[in-house]
Amino acid sequence: MEHKKTDESYIPDYQSLFEDDPKHTGGGGRVLKKLLKENRRKIYISSLYYIVKASPVWVIPVITASIINAVTDGNEVMGKVWMYMGILLVLLLQNIPMHVMYARYTDSMLRTVGAGLRNTLIKKLQHLSISYHKEIESGRVQSKFMRDVEAIEFLNAQLIKSVLPSIIGIAVSMGITIYKSPLVALFFLAVVPVNVILVRVFNKRMRETNRHFRKESEDISAKVATMLEMIPVTKAHGLESLEIHNLEENITKLKLSGLMLDKTNAYFGSITWVISHLLSALCLLFTAFLAIKGYLPAGDIVIFQTYFTSISNSVQNLVNIYPQLTKGLESIKSVSEIVLSDKVEDNRGKQRIKELKGDIEFKNVSFRYPDGDEDVIKKLSFTAKAGECIAFVGASGSGKSTVMNMIIGFLLATEGQVLIDGKDIKTLNLSSYRHHISVVPQSSILFTGTVKDNITYGMAHVSPKELARVTGLANIDEFLPRLSHGVETVIGEHGDKLSGGQKQRISIARAIIRDPEILILDEATSALDNYSEYLVQQAINGLVKNRTTFVVAHRLSTIRNADRIIVMEDGVAVEMGTYDELMAKQGKFYKLKVLSEVKPWSEDVGATM
After folding, report:
1. Which regions of the chain are under pLDDT 50?
2. CA–CA separation, 365 and 299 (whole Å)
3. Of 1, 10, 514, 540, which residue has the fewest beta carbons closer than 10 angstroms?
C-alpha cells in the first residue's frame, strides 16, 4: 500500500488489511497487528520523540540520589549540586519543544488511521449490493461506523500514547536498575507475573461483557433509526406510549449491560491498584534493608523506589488498558462484518460501457433469492428495442419490481440471460452501465439540500440554461415561484417541505438532466392525487421520448400508449401485448382494467396495480 508521506490530506484505504486473511475471519488481533505494521515507521519516530521529551522522568531520580549521596559523603557538595542542577534545567526546558513535536506528529498519525478506517467503510458500503443494504438495519451500520470506529481510534491512541510509553519506561527503568543493582532488578521482575495473572483471571469475563454491550448498543441504534422513520405513523395512530415502552425496554437492557461492564472493569482496576501499592511498600522495605546492611548507598533508595513505582505504574497501565484492548478488538471484528462481506458487485475485468443503444432482452430468465425456496421470476422472455416503452402490471409480489432490479443490475439472473445491446449483463461493468440509466421510484428519494442540489446530484457542471430547460420539462416551474429562493430553496430532510407531487417532479428532473438511454419508472404516480398525477404524467410524457422505457404501472390508464404491456402473476408473464390487444383478448389485463374502473378507491385494487 503506497503512502504519500508528505501529503497531510492523504487518506489510506485499509481494505487489504482486513482481506489478507487465509481463513477470512477478520480477526481483531490480526488486523490490529497489520495496522500497526502499516504505520511502523511513524511509530518509531513517535517513540524517539517520546524518549527525548520524557528523559527528565528517568534522569531526575538519578540526580536526586547523586545529590543525597554527595551530601552524605561531604566531598565537593556544592560543585556537584550546581552541575546536576544545570543538567536538570536543560532536560526540563527541552521538554517543551519536543512535547509539541511529539504531539503534532503522533496526533497526525492517529487522525490518519481514523480517517482511513472511515474511508474504508464508506467505500465498502458503496460497493455492497442492494440486497445487503436491505438485509442490514441502517441503525446497525451507523453504530459500526460511529461507535466501533471510535473504539478502534481510542484503542490506537492508547497503544501509541499509553502502552508504548509504558513499555519504553519499563525498559529504561529496568536497564538502569540492572546497572545499579542486579539484586534489586530481580525483585522488580516479580511485579510482572502478578499483574499477568490478574489479566488471565479477568480475560474471559471482560471479553464476554464487552461483546454483550456492543450487541445491545447496535440493537438500540437500529431500533432508534426505525423509530425515527416511523414517527409520522406512530403519531397518526396515537402509539407514542407503545413506542416509548418498547424503547425503554431496550434502554434498560443497555443500561444493565453497561453496568455489568462497568462493574467488571471496576473490580479489575481496584484490585490491580491495591496490589501495585502493596508491592511498592514491599520494595521500600527491601531497599531500606539493603541500605542498612551496606549493600547500596542510602541515596539509591530514591532511585529504586522511584523506578519501582514507575515500573509498577507502567505495568498497571498495561494491565488496565486490557479492557480497552478487548473492546477495540471486538470493534474491529464488528467493522469486519461489513468490510469482509462478499455481497459486493465485482466489476473487475468486466467490459465498461461508453455508449448504449438501449436494446434489452430477457431470455428464459429465472431468479431466486439466495435464501428463497422457489423462483420469484420464472422463465421470463421478452425483447425491448431501443426507444420502446414496456409496461409491467400485476398484483403485489408478482415480480414487477424484481424485473426492474434485474434491468438495473441490482439482481442477476439465476437462470437464463439478461442481454444489454446483445451482451450478457453479467459481463458488463455495472457502474459504467448505470451511467446510461435513470430511475424514478415510487417514493422520491431526496436529501437535505436545495432543489438544484437534488436535481443535479452527482453532476459537476450544469449550466443555468440547462437547469431551466429541465425544470420546465418536469413541470417544476409550476410551483417554483412559490418557493422562497427558487431552485436554491432548501427542501429539508427527505424533501419534507414539499408535497408528494413536487418531490416526484424533482425526481423526474433528476432523471431528465442525465439524458439516459434507459428509463425506469417504478410506480412513479401511484402515491399522488389526481392533479399531482396529471402534472407528473405530463413531465413523464416529455421524459420517455426516444428512450427505452420500462414502466411499473399503478393506474392502467397511464400505459395506454406503451408499445407492449406485460402482465405478471407469481413471477410468470401470463399476458403480453399492446393495450388494445389485451383489452380485446379480455383476459387478465382486461379484468384488472375493469376492476380498477369500478372501484378506483379500493385498497385491494390499488394493491393489484
Report:
1. 1-6, 22, 24, 26, 599-609
2. 89
3. 1
